[in-house]
Amino acid sequence: MAPSQISLAREALYDLLKIVRKEAVPLVDAFDFSDRALCSTLGRYDGDVYRALLDWAKRAPRNKDKVSDFRDINCGRYRERK
User: Fold this and answer.
1) Phi/psi zone of residue 20: left (φ > 0), alpha (ψ -120 to 50 degrees), beta?
2) CA-wise closest residue to 46 among 29, 31, 61
3) Which of 2, 10, 40, 48 gives the lowest tally of CB atoms within 10 Å of its CB?
4) For residue 41, which of 49, 29, 32, 33 has the smallest C-alpha distance?
5) Which among 21, 57, 65, 25 is positioned nearest to 39, based on CA atoms?
6) Cα-flanking dihedrals φ and ψ of residue 42, to 5°?
7) Rounded distance between C-alpha atoms, residue 67 and residue 52, angstroms
8) CA 72, CA 54: separation in Å to the nearest integer?
9) Backbone torsion region of residue 32, taken as left when φ is above 0, otherwise alpha when ψ lies between -120 and 50, otherwise beta
């Protein structure tokens, strides 16, 4: 394909996706898979992905413990050797 044909095909694809999206989201939602079951915060129709990702990260068990600062761990060991 010529570059101009690729551009036209891409534009047509994006135009069709805009039309199909209106039907695709309710169809997928009809399966009633929760974002939790899918382990996903990205499938949000409201588009508020970043807030959802931040909330998900705050609730994740692995983020509950305090993480030591790199300098506290490594520089402390270095100072102890002197």
Assistant:
1) alpha
2) 29
3) 2
4) 49
5) 57
6) -85, -20
7) 22
8) 26
9) left
